[in-house]
Structure formats: structure tokens, C-alpha cells
Amino acid sequence: MVKSSKPTTSKNLDARNASADSPVASSEADISRFVDAVRKTPRPGTGRGRLIFAMDATMSRQPSWDRALAIQSEMFRETAAIGGLDVQLIYFRGFGECRASRWVGDGNALARLMTKVSCRGGHTQIGRILSHARNEAHDKPVAAMVFVGDAMEEEIDHLAQLAGELGLIKIPVFMFHEGHDPVAETAFREIARLSRGAYCKFSAQSADELRRLLTAVAVYAAGGQKALAARGHDRTAQVLLQQLR
């Protein structure tokens, strides 16, 4: 299952890239209402959004990686009508390996990138992906970053500093937490809060839940907050808007 070759479309990130109230986790019902509201609400044309799709690719993540590969095409279908979406894949794994792909604008291209990656043992490198998101925004605005992971093995104060920097340049980080690790939950909630993003848990057994979570953020990245604000009577939209401020 482990591949020895490295993706030809990726670039290794240099080591230099590593340099209020807690958000409320959405319930299953909240997620359903939010996604339904976003899908039903017309959005103005705002051009193509840019979303960084970050994943922990250490060994425990293989099942979730496979699920995300199957899900990603729907992210593009849902955003096509509101201006489209460009996605960059970034992942970490193994001994200090952290790689970012080129930006791609269709599901097939992202699928090709993801199929070249296998999960390997290693420690988390969340700080490097947060630094990368900050650096990418120097060239062109980034609407949001998604992170899917189950663990945190780094200095939380360092991650908090980076998350705060992303919040200042308006890159909300949506932290999707698989499992029940309390250390990871504390760190993920803090990253979400400081970046003005959002935190959500999802079940390892629920591919549909992950699909709806990722698709909802992709739609946000392509269309922005206006459609959410327009759903002023929707409790879930208001919860998300509060977390994004």
C-alpha cells in the first residue's frame, strides 16, 4: 500500500514555512440544516474561490483519505454554479514530509493528485500547513482552509500564533476532527477560534457526514458569507457566521 515514489505534481515545503468564546461544534441536525440552506440560497457571482484542502496523511488516516478521494468531486459540482472553486491539496506524513500540489480547478485533477499519495507513519505537522496557507495568501487571496485530522503532537502556543495570523488576513480554518482525542480537540478548537473559522467533529464511520461538511465549506469558499447572512432566520447559518467573525 505504501508507495515509494513522490507525487510529481507536488513541491516539498521548506522548513522556513514552519516559522472570545470557544466555537460551538455543530450537531448532526445543525449540519443538515446548514448544508440544505446553502444549497437552496442563490449566491451572487463572486468569481472563483480558492480553498486549501489540508489532510493528515499519517498511517491512521488512510480510511479518511480514501473517503475524501471519493467525496471531492461533489465539492466541485456544488460550487460550479456560483463561480467555481480552485483547490490546492496539502498533506503531511512520514519523517518531516509536507507537500503541496498545484492549484486545480476540477474534480478529476484533484483526484489524480490524491491517488498518487499513500499514508505513512509519522508525527503531525499542522504548523507547517498553517504557515503554508499564510504564505499562499501573499500571492493571491485564499478564501478558506479545511483541515481533516485526528491528532495533534505539536506545541499548541505555536499553532495558536499561526492561527491568529490567518485570522488577521481573513483565512478561516475549518478544523474537522475525527475521533475523540481531547488534546487534538483542544488544539483544533483554538485554531478555529483564532482564525475565525469553525470546528466540527465527524464520525469515522460516516462518509456522508464528511461529504456534507466538506461540500458546505467548499460552497462557502466559492460564494462567501452573503448567502449565509441572507438566511438570518436559520439557526445553523447564524452559528457559523458567529464562528467566522
Structure, explained:
By secondary structure, the chain is an alpha/beta fold. The chain has one domain: Rossmann fold (3-Layer(aba) Sandwich), CATH 3.40.50.410. The protein is built from nine helices and seven strands; from the N terminus they run βαβαββααβαβαβααα. The protein has helices at residues 28-40, 62-79, 107-115, 126-136, 156-168, 182-195, 207-223, 226-230, 235-244; strands at residues 10-12, 49-56, 85-93, 97-104, 144-149, 173-178, 198-202. Strands 1-4-3-2-5-6-7 form a seven-stranded mixed β-sheet, with helices on both faces. The protein starts with 9 loop residues before the first strand and ends with a helix. Residues 1-12, 14-26 and 37-45 have low confidence and may be disordered.
- Order of the strands making up the biggest sheet: 1-4-3-2-5-6-7
Global Rg: 16 Å
- Stated plainly, the CATH topology is called Rossmann fold
**CATH class bucket:** Alpha Beta
Which class best fits the helix and strand makeup?
alpha/beta
The CATH H-level superfamily is von Willebrand factor, type A domain
SSE order, one letter for each helix or strand: EHEHEEHHEHEHEHHH
Low-confidence blocks of residues: 1-12, 14-26, 37-45
Mean pLDDT: 76
Q: Would you identify the CATH architecture?
A: 3-Layer(aba) Sandwich
Q: Tell me how many strands there are.
A: 7
Query: How many angstroms does the end-to-end distance come to?
Result: 42 Å
Q: Total domains, how many?
A: 1
- Specify the number of helices: 9
Question: What would you call the shape?
Answer: globular
Major pleated sheet: 7 strands, mixed
- Tell me roughly what share of residues is in helical segments: 40-55%
